[in-house]
Amino acid sequence: xxxxAHTARYVPTRQVTIADRVEFDGVGVHxxxxxxxxxxxxxxxxxxxxxxxxxGPMGIDIPARFKKVxxxxxCTVLGSGTGISVSTIEHLMSALRGFGxxxxxxxxxxxxxxxxxxxxxxxxxxxxxVGVRNLDAPRRYIRVLRPIRVEDxxxxxxxxxxxxxxxxxxxxxxxKAIGRQQLIAEVxxxxxxxxxxxxxxxxxxxxxxxxWSNGYGLGASLENTVVLSDGGIINQEGLRYTDEFVRxxxxxxxGDLALAGYPIxxxxxxxxxGHRLNHQVLxxxxxxxxxxxxxxxxxxxxxxxxxxxxxxxxxxxxxxxx
Length: 322
Ligand SMILES: [Zn+2]
Hints:
The chain is an alpha+beta fold. It has helices at about 90-100, 120-130, 190-195, 205-215, 245-255, 275-285, 300-310; strands at about 15-20, 20-25, 35-40, 50, 60-65, 70, 75-80, 85, 105-110, 130-140, 140-145, 150, 155-160, 165-175, 180-185, 200-205, 225-230, 230-235, 265-270, 290-295. The strands form five sheets. Strands 11, 12, 13, 14, 15, 19 and 20 form a seven-stranded mixed β-sheet that branches. Helix 1 crosses helix 5 (about 245-255) and helix 5 (about 245-255) packs parallel to helix 6 (about 275-285). Zinc ion binds near residues 91, 201 and 248. Zinc ion (ZN) binds near residues 90, 201, 248 and 252.
């Protein structure tokens, strides 16, 4: 099946934020409710922070970290620990990680990120309009030191050492329209924008109907979901990529793994995975302190660029778990 190879590596030395504020209006794919979200610049070392602006006079901050994940049932949901949550964060997180954005404040006036067209393209278009800004602070990475594997029935997810960030995603659906698809790629901003960001959410008509009867998927439509039936793809416009399905799974995985809090130096392989498996693998990684370490880039940019070009290992410091 389709297989994308891409080998350039993207390992910048300084932290990055979005250059200016961008705004979106839409509906949540699950709650069907209107919502506005805006992404603005964040200071060095703040990471990605969601702010529920509709909760209290100051809003409620929810850092985009794996420890804040409270559900992975239909989408990835972050919780404040006090009953406030923000759901369906994965496509927005994928766009931020795809562009290498380390710090951003995401203000949202409801509990679910708008689905927009079901892909990350609207976020990408907006970020490209304003651009990104390099900060002076050196970038921190999480380096995978040994393989960490999670098996869950027919599903498998594994992080292993790699000097860059590679995705190796396989899906296998009995539906003839999908079948078995694999994507292997080194993820750079260029690759993300052209090869992953436009891949849309997909679902089977019988599952969509089940969701509707349970009060979910209320915002799902052919405007934001590739819908499949026994006869194939229902959407008249067809697919954006011939293997759009595995590309969307790669987009989701990138967004879910962004909850590590720092970019990962490693390879992520998943077979028949999804949000739950992505989260389980991150959790397994952080549960094994000998399996990873922080890597802080040197403060001086010239030195770091030279070290990377020469293939010299960047300095590693022991985990100072936060
Ligand atoms: Zn998705």
